[in-house]
C-alpha cells in the first residue's frame, strides 16, 4: 500500500531551499498575460465589415442632408432660406436696348447746324441724343437667378409725374427702314388713361392684354434662363417718361422691380406735332423722297418744317430736294 506522503504547503515566500535550488516564483504562462487593447482595436478597424458600415453611414448622412435642404427650400419663402437670394434679387436685367431703326426721331437742339454732317455716322445713332417720335421699340432681356422658377405676372409703365406732357418741338428726323426680330412682341399705348401691355394684333385682330384678361399669360424664368421681348410703345398726344413696374412670384413670395432705360434713365417718347411746319428743321435720306436714280447716295437732306410740310401736301411722294 502506498504510504501517506507529507504534502508541503507552497507559498510565494522564498525559502533557503528554493534559493539554493534556483527556484523562484513561477512566471506567468503566456496565456495568462493580460491582453493588450491596441492590437484588438486595430483588428476591428481593419475589418471589411467595419469599412462597409462606415461607407453606408456616410451615404445615409449626405442623402438626409440633401432631402432636408430640399424640404426647407420648398416650405420656406425664398428670403427666409439662409445664403439664398432674396425675392428682390431673383431677376437680373441682362440688357435694355433701343432697337428702333426706322421712323421718326426728334432732336431738341440743333442750333449749330452740325446734325446734317453727323447723321450718316453710326456713332451718332448710338449716342442717344434723339427722342423717339410716335413710337419706340425697346428690347428687354431678363435672366432668372433663383433656383426656383420665377413667374412674371404683370408689367405696367409708371409715368414720371403721373402723366405725359405736351409734345416736344425741335428738329424732326425721318429715317425709313425695315427690321424683323424673333422675340416676344408686346405693345403699350403709354399716353392712354390706363396703359397695359398687349400682344400685337395680327391678321386684322385687335391687340389683347398680355398679363390680364381671360387669356392672361405670364413669363417664366428658370435659373440662368434668359427671355427677351420687344415692347412697342406708342404716344399720340404727348411727351412721356416712364419706367416699367414688374411684378413676379418666386418661392411662394411676391415681389416687384423697376426697369428703366440704360444708365438708370427713364424711357422717353414724344408724340408728333400735328403740323410738321412747327418743327425747326426736318432731316431725311433719299429713301424718304423720290430720288431720280437707282443708286441712292449716302447723304441726308435738310428742309425747314414749313418746306417739308409744303412739299408733302399732295398724295404723291415728293422728289428729293436739289442739293
What does this structure look like?
The protein is an alpha+beta fold and 323 residues long. Helix content is 18%, strand content 29%. The chain has helices at residues 16-21, 37-45, 48-75, 115-118, 122-125, 305-311; strands spanning 91-98, 103-107, 131-133, 135-144, 150-159, 171-175, 184-189, 198-199, 208-209, 219-221, 226-234, 239-250, 253-259, 267-270, 281-284, 301-304. The strands form two sheets. Strands 2, 3, 5, 6, 10, 12, 13, 14, 15 and 16 form a ten-stranded mixed β-sheet that branches. A six-stranded mixed β-sheet has the order 1-4-11-7-8-9, with no helix packed on it. It is elongated and about 100 Å long. Mean pLDDT is 79; it is low at 1-24 and 74-83.
Summed up:
The chain has 323 residues and is an alpha+beta fold. It contains six helices and 16 strands. The protein starts with 15 loop residues before the first helix and ends in a 12-residue tail after the last helix.
Amino acid at each position: 500500500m502506498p504510504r501517506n506522503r507529507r504534502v508541503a504547503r507552497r507559498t510565494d515566500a522564498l525559502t533557503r531551499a528554493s534559493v539554493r535550488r534556483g527556484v523562484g516564483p513561477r512566471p506567468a504562462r503566456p496565456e495568462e498575460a493580460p491582453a493588450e487593447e491596441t492590437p484588438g482595436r486595430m483588428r476591428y478597424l481593419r475589418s471589411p465589415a467595419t469599412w462597409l458600415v462606415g461607407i453606408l453611414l456616410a451615404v445615409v448622412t449626405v442623402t438626409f442632408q440633401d432631402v432636408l435642404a430640399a424640404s426647407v427650400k420648398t416650405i420656406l419663402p425664398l428670403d427666409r432660406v439662409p445664403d439664398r437670394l432674396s425675392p428682390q434679387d431673383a431677376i437680373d436685367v441682362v440688357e435694355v436696348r433701343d432697337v428702333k431703326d426706322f421712323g421718326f426721331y426728334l432732336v431738341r437742339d440743333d442750333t449749330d447746324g452740325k446734325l446734317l454732317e453727323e447723321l450718316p455716322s453710326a456713332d451718332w445713332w448710338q449716342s442717344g441724343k434723339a427722342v423717339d417720335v410716335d413710337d419706340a421699340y425697346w428690347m428687354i432681356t431678363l435672366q432668372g437667378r433663383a433656383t426656383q422658377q420665377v413667374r412674371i405676372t404683370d408689367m405696367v409703365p409708371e409715368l414720371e409725374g403721373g402723366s405725359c406732357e405736351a409734345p416736344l418741338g425741335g428738329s424732326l428726323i425721318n429715317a425709313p427702314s425695315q427690321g424683323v426680330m424673333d422675340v416676344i412682341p408686346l405693345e403699350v399705348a403709354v399716353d392712354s388713361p390706363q396703359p397695359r401691355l398687349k400682344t400685337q394684333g395680327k391678321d386684322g385682330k385687335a391687340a389683347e392684354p398680355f398679363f390680364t384678361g381671360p387669356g392672361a399669360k405670364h413669363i417664366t424664368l428658370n435659373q440662368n434662363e434668359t427671355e427677351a421681348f420687344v415692347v412697342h410703345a406708342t404716344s399720340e398726344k404727348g411727351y412721356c417718361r416712364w419706367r416699367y413696374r414688374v411684378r413676379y412670384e418666386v418661392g411662394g413670395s411676391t415681389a416687384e422691380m423697376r426697369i428703366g432705360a440704360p444708365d438708370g434713365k427713364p424711357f422717353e417718347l414724344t408724340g408728333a406735332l400735328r403740323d410738321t411746319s412747327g418743327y425747326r428743321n426736318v432731316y431725311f435720306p433719299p429713301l424718304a423722297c423720290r430720288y431720280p436714280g437707282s443708286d441712292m447716295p449716302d447723304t441726308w437732306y435738310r428742309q425747314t418744317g414749313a418746306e417739308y410740310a409744303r412739299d408733302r401736301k399732295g398724295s404723291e411722294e415728293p422728289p428729293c430736294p436739289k442739293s
